[in-house]
Design goal:
Layout: E1 10-14, E2 19-26, E3 29-36, H1 41-56, E4 65-69, H2 75-89, E5 96-99, H3 101-106, E6 114-121, E7 124-131, E8 136-137, E9 142-144, E10 159-161, E11 175-176, H4 182-189, E12 196-197, H5 215-221
Parallel strand pairs: 1-4, 4-5, 6-10, 10-11
Antiparallel strand pairs: 1-2, 2-3, 5-12, 6-7, 7-8, 7-9
């Protein structure tokens, strides 16, 4: 089991959406960068990390842990974030902690029944059910149409959170469209509930079997022909 030391500086990276979100905790201070990056995450991420390390007066060698968004989310963004985390960690044997994106979404709310739901594109959402009061996940990580999400039979008052609630086709009950920042990932990683790994074994969490549908498959979903 790989040990982590959160008393040392910790860097968290979230590139699972169109935002570039970074958080660097040094001692009792947290430096945050959170900005809309579109398709420029690969250009912006290293300069921003370099500026944050310089502001804190440290180098990558001083980091005790690297935290990264594990998915599900935007495939290209996730690959960028994980690749940068691995590149920073490898020379210094820094342990990595991957935090599932839906966990970070869910833990913005403390309640016995929380639906975390995010935009998965192609008319679908990524989602999972949580009891964030007891720190338990109540379902698998799933992907599907928002209108088809069913409330667990034991719960009558679910609370929803995530950018899926800003979509036209959103889940069939009320929710907040709030999304987490890298600081939320850092806080969850520090809870000790997520295992650490070395850079070579860092993994992403995929929910879809395939990243993209072929033109034929897209047409079949719409009930037409290619």
């Amino acid at each position: 089991m790989i040990q982590t030391d959160f008393s040392r500086p910790v860097l968290a990276i979230d590139t699972s959406t169109s935002f570039l979100s970074l958080a660097l905790r040094v001692g009792g201070k947290t430096i945050i960068r959170h900005e809309e990056a579109g398709n420029k995450q690969s250009e912006l991420i290293l300069p921003n990390i370099g500026a944050m390390l310089a502001e804190a007066g440290i180098t990558a060698a001083d980091l005790g842990v690297l935290v990264y968004a594990q998915g599900p989310g935007a495939f290209t963004g996730l690959r960028i974030g994980t690749g940068v985390a691995q590149g920073l960690a490898t020379p210094f044997d820094i342990p990595l902690v991957g935090v599932p994106c839906l966990d970070a979404v869910a833990y913005q709310i403390t309640a016995p029944c929380v639906l975390a739901a995010t935009d998965a594109r192609m008319g679908e959402v990524f989602y999972a059910w949580f009891d964030t009061q007891r720190q338990q996940r109540l379902s698998d990580y799933l992907v599907g149409k928002a209108v088809e999400i069913e409330v667990p039979t034991t719960e009558s008052t679910p609370q929803g959170v995530g950018n899926a609630f800003a979509l036209d086709d959103k889940p069939p009950f009320a929710g907040r469209a709030d999304m987490p920042t890298a600081a939320d990932y850092l806080q969850l990683a520090a809870s000790g509930r997520y295992p650490a790994t070395d850079a070579a074994h860092a993994e992403l969490l995929y929910v879809r079997n395939k990243i993209a549908l072929t033109a034929k498959e897209q047409a079949e979903r719409k009930g037409g022909r290619p």
